[in-house]
C-alpha cells in the first residue's frame, strides 16, 4: 500500500511545484507572484507562507503587470524556466486575462492561478462573482479559456493529480508552449486530501527536440537546391531552440543571407556579414530588397506575422517559394508554405548534412554597408535646435551600449524604431511584439533582469505606456532589481498619431494637443518615478542622455531618465507598407488619397 501525506489542495499544489525541475537542475517554476484577496489569501496564501523559500512568493502591485514580469522572465530564460501568478477572484483574475493573451500570442509559458468561486456553491453569489443566468458552471475565469493553451478548474482536491502534470506538460512542450490557467475554487484550496507521497518526488522536465519527417525534409532540401536566391527569416524559435550558432554557421557556410523578425532579432550579432537586419514593415532596406528578390524564403522559427511580411507584400518575387521550419504544424503550414515540422536546431543540422558543400553566389555587400550608413545618419546627435527624434534617442543609447546591453520594449513608437535601427549583440534584444501590449515595458524589464542578472537592461518606454502601467517600478525598487528606463515624453500617443495622419485622418485624440481636454497636462515624470523610490533625472538633450546612461550603471535600484521628444518624425530610414484599412468614403481629401494608395498596395498582397 502506497504511503500518503495529508495536505490541503493549496499545500499540495505549492509542494508539487517546488520540486519540478528543468534539465539544468533549477526549479522550472522559479516562484509565485501574488496579490492576495478573498479567493486565494486563506488557501494559497497560507500554503505559500508555509513552504517559504522552497517556492518563493513575490508581491506585486497589479495582477496584469505581475504576469508581464513572469512572462518576460520566461522569454529571457528561453522558455527553460517560468513563474506562476496568483490572484483573488473577480477583478484580480480578469486583470490577468490581457497578460494571458500576450503569453498566448508569443508562445510563452506562464502559470496563472486565479481564485475561483466556491465549488460547493453554498454561499453563492459570493463577493465579486459573475453569474451566468443560463449556465451555473460558468465563472468569470472562463474568460481565460480562449487565451490559455491549457485550462482547468480545480473543483476537487484530487484533480491536482492530473491537472498539474498536464499544466507542466503544456508549458514545456515546444509546440504547445503557452499560458496555463488553473482556476482554483477557493473552498477546494482549503480542503484536505490524502495525496500519494510519490506525487511529490522531484521531476525533471526535458524540452523535446522533434526530428523532421523524412518526406518533408527531402522536399525542403530539394527546394533549397533548386533555389537561386534563398534568404532566411530568423524568428524567435531560433532563440528558444538555442540554435543561434547553428543558424549562423549554416548561413555562413552556404552563403545565405538572413533577416530578423522582432522575436528573432539578437539571435545573430548585427556585425555578422550574413545578417542583413530587420525584415518587413519595420525592416531595413538591405533586408527588404533581398526578400523582394528572393525566390525562396526559409523561415526558421517564425509565424510570419504581418509586420514580418509587410502584410504579405515584401516577398515580391512572382516565383518565390515559402519554406517554414517550426515545431508547430499550425505555424509551419501558414500561407501555403512547404512545412518542416521540427526543432529549429535539429532541422538546420539535418538540412546541412544533405546540402553538403553547396553554396550560393556572393551578394552585393554594398547594400548592407549603405544601410548602416543611412542609420548612422538618422541616429546621429542632432546638429540643430529643437526636440530630438526617437531615432536620435536610440542612437544615444546605442553609443553607450556594451555587449551586455539588452534593449527592450513592447508598444508604441519604439518597437518599430528599435527593430529598424538597434544594432544588437547576440542576446541583446527583447521585444514583446506578438501582442504589442502597452504596459509590458517596466514589468518586463524587471522580469528580464531577474532572469539575466548579469545583463544591463535598458527599457525604452513612451509617456503613454508609462501612464498605463508604472507601478512595478516600486516593486523593482523594493526588491533592488536595477535596470535603466529611458522615458521618451512626446505628450501623448505619438505612434498612433502618425498612423492616423498616414491614413489620411486628422490629428484627433492621440496627442494631448488634439484631445478634448480643458488643460494641457504637464506631467512631472521625474518626480513621479522618484516618489516610487527610483533614481530619476531629466536629460536636457541627447548629449546629456548619453552621460546619464553611463551614470546609471552600478546602481542597485532602477534608474529613470526622462527626455522630451518630437512626436512627428518617424525613424527616417527603412520601413514598408502595412495593411491598415482606410475608409472607402470620406469628406477629407487626405483620406481619399490614402485610400487610393491603400488599394494600390492591397493589389500586391499574396495570400497563397
Automatic annotation (TrEMBL):
InterPro entries: DHS-like_NAD/FAD-binding_dom (IPR029035), Myo_inos_IolD (IPR030817), THDP-binding (IPR029061), Thiamin_PyroP_enz_cen_dom (IPR012000), Thiamin_PyroP_enz_TPP-bd_dom (IPR012001), TPP-bd_CS (IPR000399), TPP_enz (IPR045229), TPP_enzyme_TPP-bd (IPR011766). Its EC number is 3.7.1.22. Residues 217-350 form the Thiamine pyrophosphate enzyme central domain. Gene3D superfamilies: 3.40.50.970, TPP-binding domain. CDD domains: TPP_PYR_POX_like. SUPFAM superfamilies: DHS-like NAD/FAD-binding domain (SSF52467), Thiamin diphosphate-binding fold (THDP-binding) (SSF52518). One of its GO terms (molecular function) is acetolactate synthase activity. Residues 60-129 form the Thiamine pyrophosphate enzyme N-terminal TPP-binding domain. It comes from the Bacteria. GO terms for biological process: inositol catabolic process; isoleucine biosynthetic process; L-valine biosynthetic process. GO terms for cellular component: acetolactate synthase complex. Keywords: Hydrolase, Thiamine pyrophosphate. It is an enzyme of class 3 (hydrolase). Residues 412-563 form the Thiamine pyrophosphate enzyme TPP-binding domain. Belongs to the TPP enzyme family. This is 3D-(3,5/4)-trihydroxycyclohexane-1,2-dione acylhydrolase (Decyclizing). It comes from Stappia sediminis. The lineage of its organism: Bacteria, Pseudomonadati, Pseudomonadota, Alphaproteobacteria, Hyphomicrobiales. The gene is iolD.
Amino acid at each position: 500500500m502506497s504511503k500518503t501525506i495529508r495536505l490541503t489542495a493549496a499545500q499540495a499544489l505549492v509542494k508539487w511545484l517546488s520540486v519540478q525541475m528543468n534539465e539544468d537542475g533549477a526549479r522550472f517554476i522559479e516562484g509565485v507572484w501574488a496579490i492576495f484577496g478573498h479567493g486565494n489569501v486563506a488557501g494559497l496564501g497560507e500554503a505559500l507562507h508555509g513552504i517559504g523559500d522552497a517556492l518563493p512568493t513575490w508581491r506585486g502591485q497589479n495582477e496584469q503587470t505581475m504576469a508581464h514580469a513572469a512572462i518576460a522572465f520566461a522569454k529571457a530564460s528561453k522558455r527553460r524556466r517560468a513563474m506562476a501568478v496568483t490572484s483573488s477572484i473577480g477583478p484580480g483574475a480578469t486583470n490577468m486575462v490581457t497578460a494571458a493573451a500576450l503569453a498566448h500570442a508569443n508562445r510563452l509559458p506562464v502559470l496563472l492561478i486565479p481564485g475561483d468561486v466556491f465549488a460547493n456553491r453554498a454561499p453563492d453569489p459570493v463577493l465579486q462573482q459573475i453569474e451566468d443566468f443560463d449556465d451555473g458552471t460558468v465563472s468569470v475565469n472562463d474568460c481565460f479559456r480562449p487565451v490559455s493553451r491549457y485550462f482547468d478548474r480545480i473543483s476537487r482536491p484530487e484533480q491536482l493529480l492530473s491537472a498539474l502534470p498536464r499544466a507542466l506538460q503544456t508549458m514545456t512542450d515546444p509546440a504547445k508552449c503557452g499560458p496555463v490557467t488553473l482556476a482554483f475554487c477557493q473552498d477546494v484550496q482549503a480542503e484536505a486530501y490524502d495525496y500519494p507521497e510519490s506525487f511529490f518526488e522531484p521531476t525533471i522536465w526535458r524540452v523535446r527536440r522533434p526530428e523532421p519527417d523524412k518526406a518533408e525534409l527531402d522536399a525542403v532540401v530539394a527546394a533549397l537546391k533548386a533555389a537561386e536566391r534563398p534568404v532566411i527569416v530568423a524568428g524567435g524559435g531560433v532563440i528558444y531552440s538555442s540554435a543561434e550558432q547553428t543558424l549562423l554557421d549554416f548561413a555562413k557556410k552556404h552563403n545565405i543571407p538572413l533577416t530578423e523578425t522582432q522575436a528573432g532579432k539578437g539571435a545573430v550579432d548585427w556585425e555578422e556579414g550574413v545578417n542583413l537586419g530587420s525584415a518587413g514593415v519595420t525592416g531595413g532596406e538591405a533586408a527588404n530588397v533581398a526578400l523582394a528578390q528572393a525566390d525562396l524564403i526559409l523561415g526558421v522559427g517564425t509565424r510570419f506575422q504581418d509586420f514580418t511580411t509587410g502584410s504579405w507584400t515584401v516577398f515580391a518575387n512572382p516565383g518565390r517559394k515559402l519554406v517554414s521550419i517550426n515545431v508547430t504544424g499550425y505555424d509551419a503550414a501558414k500561407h501555403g508554405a512547404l512545412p518542416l515540422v521540427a526543432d529549429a536546431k535539429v532541422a538546420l543540422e539535418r538540412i546541412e548534412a544533405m546540402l553538403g558543400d553547396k553554396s550560393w553566389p556572393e551578394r552585393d555587400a554594398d547594400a548592407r554597408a549603405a544601410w548602416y550608413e543611412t542609420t548612422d545618419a538618422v541616429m546621429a546627435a542632432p546638429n540643430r535646435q529643437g526636440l530630438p527624434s526617437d531615432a536620435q534617442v536610440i542612437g544615444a543609447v546605442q553609443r553607450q551600449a556594451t555587449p551586455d546591453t539588452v534593449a527592450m520594449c513592447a508598444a508604441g513608437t519604439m518597437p518599430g524604431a528599435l527593430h529598424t535601427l538597434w544594432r544588437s549583440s547576440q542576446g541583446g534584444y527583447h521585444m514583446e511584439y506578438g501582442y504589442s501590449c502597452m504596459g509590458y515595458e517596466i514589468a518586463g524589464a524587471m522580469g528580464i533582469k531577474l532572469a539575466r542578472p548579469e545583463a544591463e537592461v535598458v527599457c525604452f518606454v513612451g509617456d503613454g505606456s508609462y501612464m498605463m502601467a508604472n507601478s512595478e517600478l516600486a516593486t523593482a525598487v523594493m526588491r533592488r532589481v536595477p535596470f535603466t528606463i529611458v522615458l521618451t515624453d512626446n505628450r501623448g500617443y505619438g505612434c498612433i498619431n502618425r498612423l492616423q495622419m498616414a491614413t489620411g485622418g486628422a490629428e484627433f485624440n492621440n496627442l494631448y494637443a488634439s484631445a478634448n481636454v480643458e488643460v494641457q497636462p504637464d506631467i512631472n515624470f521625474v518626480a513621479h518615478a522618484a516618489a516610487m523610490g527610483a533614481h530619476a533625472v531629466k536629460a536636457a538633450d541627447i548629449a546629456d542622455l548619453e552621460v546619464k546612461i553611463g551614470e546609471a550603471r552600478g546602481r542597485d535600484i532602477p534608474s529613470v531618465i526622462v527626455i522630451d521628444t518630437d512626436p512627428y518624425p518617424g525613424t527616417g530610414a527603412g520601413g514598408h507598407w502595412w495593411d491598415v484599412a482606410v475608409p472607402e468614403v470620406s469628406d477629407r481629401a487626405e483620406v481619399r488619397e490614402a485610400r487610393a494608395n491603400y488599394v494600390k498596395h492591397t493589389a500586391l498582397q499574396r495570400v497563397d
